[in-house]
Amino acid sequence: MFPTIPIFSVVSQPFKRSQLGLFQGKTKQYGNNVPFSKHKTRRTWLPNVQRKRLPSEIMGEDVRVKVTTRALRTIKKYGGLDNYVEKSSAKILGHEGMRIRLKIREHTAAQKSFNTREDRRPPTTADARQAREQAMKALGLDSLPNARQTIAFLKQQGKFEPYNVLSLQ
Fold first, then answer.
1. Distance between CA atoms of residues 39 and 77, nearest Å
2. E strand or H helix at 21, and its extent?
3. I need a labelling partner for 31 at 20 to 30 A (CA). Which of 11, 46, 113, 156 fits?
4. φ, ψ dihedrals at 153, nearest 5°
5. Which residue stretches of 20-89 are H helix?
6. What tens digit of pLDDT does each residue of 105-133 get?
7. What are the strands, taking DSSP E only, across 28-163?
8. What is the DSSP letter of 155?
9. What is the pLDDT of residues 141-164, one digit of tens each?
10. What's this model's pTM, rounded to 2 decimal places?
11. What is the pLDDT of residue 169?
């Protein structure tokens, strides 16, 4: 899940807070307050940051992220969070954007591997029970075999395929 170092070496941002969200290159700005007396005092302007839940079509869930209003406009222009994260450069995205990009890529890879399987539905408890009964008959046991015996039987038959439940979520 954790991205490799070379991916994050591309991303460098002087404004540390911008690493925690989608800031679209917006940083803290500096200037002066200038009253009528012309006595200048230093001040800063922070980016307009909002905490939003943006829907991801690929992951099928909302992603909570701190995002600037400029980034929100760009996300709308690209047609959603997924397109924005895939098409934007790493410099603009920052650490949080790269994290979301990797998460989306992992999810699409898991969907592709799941869609290439012949049996597209997840195994049910009824399927497991049926496999245990077949193993019991083939092994000549009086009672249902345990999980190890069933898996060994299925491997012999060439029907055993490990199923990753986490890839569906």
1. 43
2. strand 21-22
3. 11
4. -60, -45
5. 69-78, 81-87
6. 998 888 777 666 555 567 788 888 888 88
7. 29-33, 41-45, 49-56, 61-68
8. H
9. 888 888 888 888 888 887 776 665
10. 0.60
11. 44
- 128's enclosing H/E stretch is helix 125-139
**Cβ(11)–Cβ(91) under 8 Å?**
yes
Q: How far apart, in whole angstroms, are the C-alpha atoms of residue 28 and residue 47?
A: 6
Point out which residues pair with 55 in neighbouring strands: 62
Residue type, position 24, single letter: Q
Tokens 């395929």 locate to 161
Q: What is the dihedral sign for C-alpha 162, 167, 168, 169?
A: positive
Bridge partners of residue 64, in order along the sequence: 53
> In sequence order, what are the residues at sequence separation of 6 or more whose Cβ sits closer than 8 angstroms to the Cβ of residue 44?
28, 29, 30, 31
By three-state DSSP, how is residue 168 classified? helix
Tokens of 94: 């920052």
Best CA proximity match to 57, nearest among 21, 28, 82: 82
